Amino acid sequence: MSVPVSTEPPEEQGHRSGLQALREQAAAAPRPWVPAAVGYAALLIGLLDIVGAVFPRFRHTRMHELAGLMPGGVTTLATAGSLMIGVLLVLLAHALRRRKRRAWRAVVVLLPVSAALHLMRWHAVGPAVISLVLLVVMLAHRREFYAQADPRTRWRALANFVGLGGLSMLLGLVIVSVHPRAEIGSPGIGARLEQVVYGLLGFDGPIRYAYDRTSDLVGYSLAGLGLLTALTTAYLALRPSEPVAVLSQQDEERLRGLLRRHGQRDSLGYFALRRDKSVLFSHSGKAAISYRVVSGVMLASGDPVGDVEAWPGAIKLFMAEARAHAWVPAVMGCSEVGGEVWTREAGLDALELGDEAIVRTDAFSLSGRAMRNVRQMVKRIERNGYSCQVRRVADLTAEERDRITVAAARWRGTDTERGFSMALGRFGDPGDDDCVVVTAHRPADPDETADPVLGDLKAVLHFVPWGPDGISLELMRRDRAADPGLNELLIVAALQAAPGLGVTRVSLNFAMFRSALARGERLGAGPVLRAWRGLLVFLSRWFQIESLYKFNAKFQPDWEPRFLVYPTARDLPRIGFAAMQAEAFITVGMPRFGRRRQRAGTTGGSGRAELAA
Fold first, then answer.
1. pLDDT tens by residue, 78-91
2. CA-CA distance, 99 to 85, in Å (whole number)?
3. Quick check: 449 and 583 in contact, CB under 8 A?
4. Bigger pLDDT: 606 vs 156
5. CA dihedral in degrees (250, 15, 582, 155; nearest 10)?
6. Do residues 108 and 153 make contact, with C-beta atoms less than 8 angstroms apart?
């Protein structure tokens, strides 16, 4: 029997072994309450140090006696140092609660420094002992702080400069304003702001104080805040950057191989090929999970790609990676089978999100009373001069691809491209030639001027492959000036042309909370269910909840439930916020002038959630 030999370079093997060691530490963490307790303690100590350093009267109250037991001091230099340490502890508290190893290292360094200051300058044994005891506790529980740093870019240096600089300005203004009896004259707000700016830069400002002690206290405190802002910003700017999630070409090829063999299992499987996702493969290579980290949430979508029997191996690696970084694991839009495997293998819980509309093309027909409204709408649109073309992307010319790309971007309606779990994020890529595109056309009237770029193009649908005999809707865009009912015409054209393309299944829009809407309007629905439906209808004024359900229901689809998988109920708000960020319903980041323009040819988006009226 042959023994497999690793072909990885030694440094790569060492990196993987280091990751494995961190995962083993994460799995062996015996006291999950320790990081939370240490984090909140650091936050409390930091706030007390800041208040004690900023407000002089605080040092003459009973609260000062409590602060005296914490790291910090009462002399001029010690007050400035206490202020700096307090700000650092407040900044590090959240990272400690998330088990971040670097935060633990920083606090382990701060505590003995604080203790040494107490012993050398004021011979204060009590606070020094408290600091050393806390240090010993943290060293004893060092295995609880194993999490690696999150993926980062140097934009965080600018964010740190703006955030910490603003905090320093605010604290500096308070420091300058809490010594009115020591001020010479009556300086105004302009002079105080000037004093803060000069002080943060290490220079004397325009305000003069009657006592040297007060002048030194203000000067040292402001200089300390400025130095802290400069050093942390320089560290973030100069440290090696780690790229955000990017799907490498090698990983994409491996995923495409899994999709060719197992892609028929999940209509969302092809969306694993989004190039702003990372991917984890099981040890056997027979299954993979694509994900993105958003606001500390490790967010996967759909079912794992590949052989169902290999899913548990990929799920275990996913959970180990989440523990190694202290991320919250979550899965959006998995199927019922996928949800059962996730809950069984990872110990997570599941919540039904809604239903996916799936139409069987062999059973679809416009005849019958149930399809009368759709039939009449399609006939009216066709009489208005609209026609449709259904083709594979491979059959499009380069000019047609460019035209559709421009049209989709122009009709998007938002500055930010939306989509994550049910969007590919690109159109016309050479690797996506098996995708299906449906276009609607209408010649310009004699008294109208045709668009020089789009010509007679009025709407577009884009479907991605779902195994060898299915397609899944990815993009739905139309000209806002086009006639109502154009989307119905496009979908009917796609369903009627599907058999000729070898397609027997078509996945349409996802209807969130569909079952609640359907049950709530039935005869005999209880008051709780009616109230829940009423809330969903109210929210539909801003989110397309009821409209997507009613639009999907026109085509008499089969409904397949989709689930959200999550650790605990208290994580749901955080997961929901991260999911809305991933889908670009909430954008948190650089202003528009700081963003890179999206490259031509990569237009896509969550057409499932952008239904035009």
1. 667 767 777 787 87
2. 20
3. no
4. 156
5. -110
6. no
pLDDT in tens, 478-491: 888 888 889 999 99
Strand partners, 588: none
Q: Label the pairing between strands 387-392 and 349-360.
A: unpaired
Tell me the angle at which helices 311-325 and 10-28 cross, rounded to the nearest 10 degrees: 80
CB of 371 within 8 A of CB of 556? yes
Answer for the pair 258, 273: CB distance below 8 angstroms, yes or no. no
CA pair distance 511, 534, nearest whole angstrom: 16
Residue 587, judged by CB atoms within 10 A of its CB (0-12, 13-18, 19+), counts as middle
pTM: 0.71
- How many whole angstroms separate alpha carbon 440 and alpha carbon 457? 6
Residue reference for tokens 């086009």: 482
Two tokens at 519? Answer: 């049950």
Three-state SS for 74?
coil
- What pLDDT score does 16 carry? 47
Count of residues in the chain: 613
Residues of 548-581 as b/e, b for ≥16 C-beta within 10 angstroms?
Answer: bbebbbbbbbebeebbbbbbeeebeebbeebbbb
